[in-house]
Amino acid sequence: MSPEAPPRFEPSSEKVDVLLVDDRPEDLIAMTTILEGPLYTIVTARSGSEALKRLLEQDFAVILVDVLMPTMDGFELAGMIKKRERSRDTPLIFLTAAGSDVGRIYQGYALGAVDYLPKPVDPDVVRAKVAIFAELFRRAKRLEQQAKALREAERRERDLQITELKLAAERRFTNLAEAIPQIVWTTNPQGALQYANRRFVEYTGMDLEAAQGEGWLAAVHPDDAVQCFTCWREAVAKGVLYEGEFRLRRMSDGAYRWHISRAVPERNAEGQIVAWLGTHTDFEDLKQAIRARDEFLSIASHELRTPLTALKLRLQALLYAKGLEEKLEKKLESAARQTQRLERLIDNLLDISRITTGHLELEPEELELAEVAHEVVERLRDEATSVGSQVQFEATSRAGGCWDRLRIEQVVTNLLTNAMKYGEGKPVVVRVSEDERAVEISVRDRGMGIADVDLERIFHQFERATNRRTAGGLGMGLYITRQIVEAHQGQIEVESKVGEGSVFRVRLPK
Fold first, then answer.
1. Is 438 helix (H, G, I), strand (E, B) or coil?
2. Residue 8 pLDDT exceeds 60
3. Is the pLDDT of residue 353 over 60?
4. Domains of the chain (ranges plus CATH)?
5. Most buried of 160, 206, 437, 463, CB within 10 angstroms?
6. What is the mean pLDDT of the chain?
7. CA-based nearest residue to 75, from 53, 95, 60, 56
């Protein structure tokens, strides 16, 4: 009775690679003859090491391995194949001499073999089994290609959606830029103008083509153009916020009007600058109002000083007179302190005027910061006592340097009076120290403290650490202090915690 013929399998026409591993050349020729044709590319190897080299070079639909090979037998080769990520799922068919013991057959299956064929092989059976695994390989490849195509299609669709979203965002930006009254503009990463809204064209009379690149500078006042461009290039080079003021020509009447310009870098997910977004805002009217205010403050301050100086002299003369009643003397001392307070307010108004007009001048001389600070502490000790506060002075060195004496006295005075004002009657410590690079003076109080959100605000004009009316003052002391310190190329900082007090530190370079 003839053996039952294996079922016929109709493979695809796509050619796949098959690896034959056998140390006997005649067996390789026989197997190649059985499988040769348009469906397979036959690759042969005469040892396990040669087979491993072939597996490093390409993928195979199925591997037929002779079990009995010298040096590295089929089982050892199978173990090596299954350890590799790339080849571990490749089907293995073992070939062995007829009559092999069952234990070796089980060993082959344990190593991942999908079948076991005895030699001499039945050509039809070999073709049928190889055809099955070859077709499975083809289908897996097609599925992989389809999945890859699907991923690529999804990627293209996502890219298209992202592009549409970007275009929509750009349209919204453009519509918004055209709708607002300010001048809006954008540049490339290198700072060359690419876009300006209609307001720019209407205001300057320049068309966009002429303004692109650095053409927009033609609309800037000649006296401002160099500084404007230098500051802009510096901001672009550093990748930081740009802020500047310059005059821009208005086409309607040819007048140059002051504008505030601001620009921020736009960055991608990797932090690289892809563009700059900026605005020009006309503040000529506001600048004129500020100039008028500063002129008024300057005139009013000078006019107030004349009668105040006379009043101060009269009070001092009365205080030095002999035979004053104790009650009258206390009233005169109180009046003198209020006069000094009013004098400081007037001086602050004058300083605000000097700072805003750029006329804050320094007269540096060789000083010892410890001596200057100690004099201020002693001068204000009575005032501190009147508010129930004790002032402690400490100095670890004399802290010499070259500064404007009157301005440094003003800094210490402002910080100390501020500590007395907000120290709630608790002790205040003034300390002078130095290191290799700078000298430092710190003023510490144990009073109400300052909230984190207010630590920067208190250094602005007309700002105070608290909104309580009992605090008094115009809120200019810390602003003036910072301007004086920075004019000396120094730094001022504050550390504070609500309910625990504050410490102001001023560092001045040697």
1. strand
2. no
3. yes
4. 16-144 (3.40.50.2300), 180-282 (3.30.450.20), 284-360 (1.10.287.130), 361-510 (3.30.565.10)
5. 206
6. 86
7. 95
